[in-house]
Design brief:
The protein is of the alpha/beta class. Helices cover 35% and strands 13% of the residues. The two termini are 34 Å apart.
């Protein structure tokens, strides 16, 4: 991984003749946004959408985009040459090894006050003009590079040995790219700790935006539990479904993925698979659930915050983003490890305890979209002020 992005932008550049009244809004701040790829509409894409609202008119650049699967606000993104290669829009993962090159061969972004990289892989390699601050909103340092053993099942078994060696090179490259960043912003305290550990840099925590104006309480909570997520290995749906094998409660599963048929074959009759659903059905499912069960080590975990915005408590894992979201005994319960007995005990407690749904909703408002836009503007203004 000898590829280098433009190294003329050091981590604390001196800005010349850019004094401004930082008490004003963001309209006078010229920002561009770089995002890894735009092939689906999930948590990181919602962050980009809110960045565009925080800084109206900002150009958006990416590596690959699939306009069929993203909202109108993101369709105008300027994609790289990878977007023209066969299969790139349906199988973007094939081209991940070429993504550093795709950032390298682009012209540097010029005439801007700041560039924001929405990064969980390579976007920190975006080229910027000398003297322009690069702010990295880091969803996580590259997981399959920095935590390869936990992510190794993403690779075919026959390729894992070579992939392990390649990831060592990726880590060195990623650390070099991190030196170009003026200010890191982490989506959770857990990610901030990873940034400090892997890059030796501090980060400001700004939680991702949650649609708290849409996900609101309503109706009566029922007796069934809920799991929402892509049905793939690291999301641990099989762990949750196995927990309900010996429990007298019902579980609804929302989501699709490669494990769907395997999970159906193993599930007991108290488990229902609802597939992918629209936003309204998702909201009603959150509202009706006894609790949202999600013992997953996530970088943040927007679904947990959505459930709480609907007044529904969360059974989560005492790790990752759940530590920022779940207040034990107030907005949910945490299990210390991914142990079947521990999870079942927490579910039994959730079935018997009554937490205040109105209070849960009120506490979830700290994750609102408006709050996100305000905080990210504050970070950009402070970065410009610090370096003016």
């Amino acid at each position: 991984m000898a590829l280098e992005a433009d190294e003329t932008s050091c981590s604390r550049p001196a800005l010349v003749n850019r004094q401004r009244d930082l008490r004003t809004g963001s309209a006078d701040v010229r920002v561009a946004i770089a995002h890894e790829w735009l092939v689906r509409y999930a948590g990181s894409e919602r962050v980009v959408e809110q960045l565009l609202l925080a800084f109206p008119g900002s150009p958006l650049i990416t590596t690959i985009k699939d306009t069929e699967n993203i909202p109108a606000a993101l369709k105008g993104a300027d994609a790289s040459f990878l977007n023209r290669l066969p299969g790139s829009r349906r199988h973007h993962e094939w081209y991940v090894p070429l993504m550093p090159l795709s950032w390298l061969v682009r012209r540097p972004l010029v005439g801007l006050d700041a560039v924001i990289a929405s990064s969980h892989a390579c976007a920190n390699a975006v080229r910027v003009e000398r003297g322009t601050p690069l702010i990295s909103y880091c969803h996580t340092p590259i997981r399959y590079a920095w935590d390869f053993e936990a992510e190794s099942d993403r690779f075919p078994r026959v390729l894992r040995g070579g992939a392990r060696e390649t990831m060592a090179l990726v880590r060195r490259w990623d650390r070099r790219m991190a030196r170009r960043v003026t200010q890191f912003v982490a989506n959770s305290r857990a990610v901030a700790r990873r940034i400090e550990e892997f890059y030796g840099r501090s980060a400001i925590v700004v939680h991702p935006p949650v649609r708290t104006d849409f996900f609101t309480p309503g109706g009566m909570r029922g007796d069934r539990f809920l799991y929402v997520g892509r049905l793939t290995g690291y999301k641990r749906p099989q762990f949750v479904i196995e927990a309900f094998r010996d429990l007298p409660y019902g579980l609804d599963v929302i989501g699709d993925g490669p494990l769907l048929q395997h999970l159906r074959d193993r599930a007991t009759p108290n488990v229902r698979f609802l597939g992918n659903v629209g936003d309204e059905v998702l909201r009603e499912s959150y509202r009706a659930a006894r609790a949202f069960v999600y013992p997953v080590d996530e970088d943040f975990g927007i679904a947990m915050a959505e459930a709480q915005a609907c007044g529904t408590p969360v059974v989560g894992l005492a790790s990752g983003g759940a530590l920022d979201i779940v207040e034990p005994g107030v907005t949910g319960w945490l299990v210390g490890r991914q142990d079947l007995g521990d999870l079942q005990a927490a579910i039994r407690r959730a079935a018997g305890d009554e937490l205040d749904g109105a209070d849960i909703h009120e506490r979830a408002l700290r994750f609102s979209e408006r709050r996100f836009r305000t905080e990210i503007r504050r970070v950009v203004h402070a970065t410009l002020g610090d370096t003016s």
